[in-house]
Amino acid sequence: MADTTHSGDPTTDEPREPRRTSVTKRGGGDPASRGRTTIADGVVEKIAGLAARDVVGVHAMGSGISRTFGAVRDRVPGGGGAKSNVTRGVKAEVGEVQTALDLEIVVDYGVSIADVAGDVRENVIAAVERMTGLEVVEVNIAVSDVKLPEEEEEEPEPRLQ
Fold first, then answer.
1. How do residues 50-94 score in pLDDT, each as one tens digit?
2. CB 3.0–4.6 Å: which of 2, 30, 87, 149 could bond 45 by disulfide?
3. Nearest-angstrom CA–CA distance, 115 and 121
4. pTM exceeds 0.85
5. Rounded to whole angstroms, how far apart are CA atoms 47 and 137?
């Protein structure tokens, strides 16, 4: 007579599944849902400003007056410099999950304004949505000027060399 050991369920005579232990996670839930992320208007404005400037046919951002004041401000120590230049001509309204943008651009003479505006809109939406996760509900574009080839740059020459 031989002794046999049986590890199965005695009522069904089938092998028993290994016992699984549950692991309790601290805090519970997905880590992405543990808190809130807020994005400042200025962050979206910087992203949109850089994305708009990348489009061929965009000469500058902002109206002539804002560019003139910006050029003067850039020369004053502590006047804002690169930050104001990047966001010039861009206004963002940021909500919890959506954003709306207003852009003011200057286009180069000879380009199709409709094509440039469409390309700016597409590039800005792609960049803002990819980087922030916000839904861009609208991008309003105002073309404030056309840069003619023979026009001089509006920035004044520095007095010191």
1. 999 999 999 999 975 544 544 555 555 655 554 458 999 999 999
2. 87
3. 10
4. no
5. 16
Query: pLDDT-derived band of residue 46, with 50, 70 and 90 as boundaries?
Result: very high
Partner residues linked to 45 by β-bridges:
none
Which tokens sit at 92?
Answer: 């963002």
pLDDT value for 80: 53
With a CB cutoff of 8 Å and minimum separation 6, the contacts of 62 are 70, 88, 89, 104, 106, 144
Kindly list the distances between the CA atom of residue 61 and the CA atoms of 27, 32, 56, 139, in Å, as whole numbers in the listed order.
47, 36, 13, 14
CA neighbours within 13 Å on the CB side: how many for 9? 8
- CA 18, 30, 132 angle in degrees (round to 5)? 150
